[in-house]
Amino acid sequence: MKGEPLLGVFDSGVGGFSVLQELQKVTPANILYYGDCANAPYGNKSKEEITVYIKNILVYLKSQGVTHFVSACNSMSVTTTEELLEEIGITRDTYIDMIDGVRAIGLLDGANVLIIGTEATISSRVYQSILSEKIIPHRTYTLTTLAGEIEKGDTIAIMKSIEKAILYAKEMHATHILYACTHYPLVHTMFIDVSARLGWAGMFINPAVYVADLVATWKISGEHSVQCEASLETEVFISYRDRYVVVS
C-alpha cells in the first residue's frame, strides 16, 4: 500500500538477483527489483552513459513508491555520486550500494585477494583503495565479457572466462577471489567446479552477503513480496526471476 516501506533493488540486468537472494534471507521487506536488461551489461560503457541509466532508474523507482534503495550493480555503485543522489532527492541513510558491502568486509589475516570485475569497476580503483586501507594485499583481473555472457546464458563462453580468472588467481597465489560484479555469484557453482579442476583451493568473497547485513539494520517491515521488472524481459531474466524470487 502507498506510504508503506518499499525496498528497491536495481541492477544493469540479472546480476542483482544474487543480491536479492541474500536480502530475502534477512528482511521481510516488500521488494521491487528492476533490471535494465535493454542496456546490459554496463561494465564496458562510459561513466557518462552509466550515470544517465542510474538517474533514469532511480527516478522511476521513486515514482513507484520505493523508500529504500539497494544498488545491486558494482559498475553503478562506483559511478553514483552523492550529488546525483541529492539531485534525485534520495538521502544517503536510505541508500546502500556494493561499495558499502565491500567496506563491511572484515580484516583477512594472511590473505592475498584477487578482485575480479568489469572494466568500469576495476578502472575506478574504488575497491583497490578499500583493501589498501585495510592493509590487505590484492591484485585485480578484468573480465571484460563475463557479465555479458551471463546475461546471454552462454555457458561455453562463461566457462572459458572463469578458467582465465582462476588460472590467474593460481598464478598470483591468491587466497581469496572477491566478486566485484554481482553477476558472478550467479555462476558460483561454475567457479567452484573450475577451481577444483584447475587446482586452486582459495575462497570466494561475495559482497552481497555484507550488503544484506546492512539492509537488515534498516528493520523494514513487510510481507516478503517481490515484484520484478525489466527494461527488456529476456529469457535469461525470466529464468533467474523464476529461480531466485522466493515468495512466502
Topology:
Blueprint: E1 7-11, H1 17-26, E2 31-35, H2 47-63, E3 68-71, H3 74-77, H4 82-88, E4 95-97, H5 98-103, E5 113-117, H6 119-124, H7 126-133, E6 138-142, H8 146-152, H9 155-171, E7 176-179, H10 188-198, E8 203-205, H11 207-216, E9 226-230, H12 235-244
Parallel strand pairs: 1-2, 1-3, 2-9, 3-4, 5-6, 5-7, 7-8
Helix pairs in contact: 1-11, 9-10
Describe the overall structure.
This protein is of the alpha/beta class. It folds into two domains: 7-100 and 209-244, Rossmann fold, CATH 3.40.50.1860; 103-207, 3-Layer(aba) Sandwich (Rossmann fold). Helices cover 46% and strands 16% of the residues. The protein is built from twelve helices and nine strands. The protein has helices at residues 17-26, 47-63, 74-77, 82-88, 98-103, 119-124, 126-133, 146-152, 155-171, 188-198, 207-216, 235-244, and strands spanning 7-11, 31-35, 68-71, 95-97, 113-117, 138-142, 176-179, 203-205, 226-230. The strands form two sheets. A five-stranded parallel sheet has the order 4-3-1-2-9, sandwiched between helices. Strands 6-5-7-8 form a four-stranded parallel sheet, with helices on both faces. Helix 10 links the parallel strand 7 and strand 8 (203-205). Helix 1 crosses helix 11 and helix 9 crosses helix 10 (188-198). It is globular. The mean pLDDT is 95.
